Amino acid sequence: QLQLVESGGGLVQPGGSLRLSCAASGFSLDNYVVTWFRQAPGKEREGISCISQSAGSRSFRDSVKGRFTIAKDSAQNTVYLQMNSLKPEDTAIYFCAADTKARCLWSTDDRIPGNALSGVTEYAYWGQGTQVIVSS
C-alpha cells in the first residue's frame, strides 16, 4: 500500500519542541521531494518546509526559519520536521506530501511552476495529518 503516515503531534507549551515524522510505505522517499504543510483553523494550507530527493536542498517559510529543521533518514524511509521554540501561532494540523516533480526552492512564490512550498503545486501523496497544539 502506497502511503504517507505522519506522527509526533501533540500538545506542547510555548517555547517547547516537537518532532514530527513522515513515514512512507510502498515507495522510496529518495525519489521524491517531501514537503511539510500546515493548516490552522480558518486559514489556508501553507507549505512550511521541503527537502529534495538527495536532501541537498532544504527550504523553509520565513515564519519558521531558525526554529524548524527538516531531515531525511533514507534507511527508515522517513522525513522528520524538528520544531523548536514553538509559538501559539504554530498551532495547526501538519501534513506531509511527496511528489517527484516538485522543486524544493528558496521561495514560496506560487508563480514558479512546481514550487514545493507553493499552495498550488500538486502532490502525488499526502498523509492524513497530525495535530499540533501550542498552548499554556
Largest sheet data = 7 strands, mixed
Our estimate of the beta-strand percent is: 35-45%
Number of DSSP strand runs? 11
The number of distinct helices, counting runs of at least 4 residues, comes to 0
- Cα end-to-end separation: 39 Å
Describe the global form: globular
Structural class: mainly beta
Portion of residues within helices:
under 10%
Integer-rounded radius of gyration: 14 Å
Provide the succession of SSEs. EEEEEEEEEEE
**In terms of per-residue confidence, which ranges show pLDDT below 50 for 5 or more consecutive residues?**
none
Global mean pLDDT: 96
Task: Map the helices and strands.
Elements lengths: L2 E5 L2 E3 L5 E8 L7 E7 L6 E6 L6 E3 L7 E6 L4 E6 L8 E8 L25 E2 L3 E5 L2
Parallel strand pairs: 2-11
Antiparallel strand pairs: 1-3, 3-8, 4-5, 4-9, 5-6, 7-8, 9-10, 9-11
Task: Provide a descriptive summary of the structure in words.
The relative contact order is 0.30. The protein has strands at 3-7, 10-12, 18-25, 33-39, 46-51, 58-60, 68-73, 78-83, 92-99, 125-126, 130-134. The mean pLDDT is 96. It contains no helices and 11 strands. It has 136 residues and is mainly beta. It is 0% helix and 43% strand. A hairpin with a 6-residue loop joins strand 5 (46-51) and strand 6.
Could you give a short description of this structure?
By secondary structure, the protein is an all-beta fold.
